[in-house]
Amino acid sequence: MIRVRHISKRYRDTVAVDDVSLDVREGEVFGLLGPNGAGKTTTMEMVEGLRPPDTGEIVIDGLDVVRERQRVKKVIGIQLQATALFERLTVREMLRLYASFYGETQPTQDILSRFHLEEKAEDWVKHLSGGQKQRLAIGLAVIHDPKVLFLDEPTTGLDPQARRGLWDIIHTLQQSGKTIVLSTHYMEEAEALCDRIAIMDAGKVIALDTPSGLIRRLDSDSVVEFVVPDGLDVSRFQSLAGVKRVKKVDDGKGVQLLTDALQQTLKELIDLSEHGTFKINGLRTRTATLEDVFLHLTGKRLKD
Ligand SMILES: Nc1ncnc2c1ncn2[C@@H]1O[C@H](COP(=O)(O)OP(=O)(O)OP(=O)(O)O)[C@@H](O)[C@H]1O
């Protein structure tokens, strides 16, 4: 449905997007996951046709996004940021206004009921909760029944309940046949919603797979985390049995080991602490998650 080839974008000295290629299949929810500044928004805006790429090619549903912009607009829906909504219109007025931009649209009443906004139809937009505003923003984005929907960090700033409500809406949209591209910096959101995920860091796609495929790369791996005294040289942990990677986390206070031989690593770690006369605190072990995949690939944590 979407084909992106070798797109790049530079702002003065910053390379925001660096030679990104990817394909989004019809009917899938495709996630762009990465920390702030990774280039997710710039990538989305180029794919949406809002920003011209410096180089590269983007095709949506057979249409060239740069050369056939007007035709592409009918095929795609873009979720506005909540701040771009008109505060002093009612929900119904806002929907009617948007409907007037397009020739053929879905009935306002349908949108109100599908997005659970019926009771709010006559209320001013400014009086909606964060979750309701996000639902309205998505309702506006699908008013012309587009094939492809773009959601840029749709649940940022929402409480957990409102976030789950929005996840349900995104699932329903997928079931109705839409192709959805979303960006997020929430791991669990990417895992819960996305069929495939492109992990972005510093303008590049550094991994692209299903959530379970990404985790499977670290399948036999476990994570050992603990806290050591300030100033301890953590490189010594690299030589423990099974350890594949040593990372300092939590501003250097914690250490994280990725191991494929948990028992041996733990045994040697405890021996080392006894003989090395330093104390280990807060020792924890767990199996690898998408968060660890990110840490493993980038050396950075993907903070919520
Ligand atoms: N209009 C602009 N002018 C200059 N630099 C920009 C502009 N837009 C983005 N950048 C820079 O490009 C890089 C990528 O930004 P982008 O907003 O695409 O990242 P992001 O992954 O979407 O981050 P966020 O989650 O914060 O939105 C950043 O270093 C950012 O500072």
TrEMBL record:
The name of this protein is: ABC transporter
Which compartments does it reside in?
A: Cell membrane
What InterPro entries does this protein's entry cite? Answer: AAA+_ATPase, ABC_transporter-like_ATP-bd, ABC_transporter-like_CS, ABC_transporter_ATP-binding, P-loop_NTPase
Q: Does the keyword Translocase apply?
A: yes
Which keywords describe this protein according to UniProt?
ATP-binding, Cell membrane, Membrane, Nucleotide-binding, Translocase, Transport
One Gene Ontology cellular component annotation? Answer: plasma membrane
- Sorted alphabetically, which SUPFAM superfamilies does this protein's record hold? P-loop containing nucleoside triphosphate hydrolases (SSF52540)
Which PANTHER family does the UniProt entry name for this protein?
A: ABC TRANSPORTER ATP-BINDING PROTEIN (PTHR42711), ABC TRANSPORTER ATP-BINDING PROTEIN NATA (PTHR42711:SF5)
What stretch or stretches form a coiled coil here? Answer: none
Q: Which domain of life is it from?
A: Bacteria
Q: Which residues form the ABC transporter domain?
A: 2-227
Q: Name one GO molecular function term.
A: ATP binding
Q: Which family does it belong to?
A: Belongs to the ABC transporter superfamily.
Q: Where is the signal peptide?
A: none
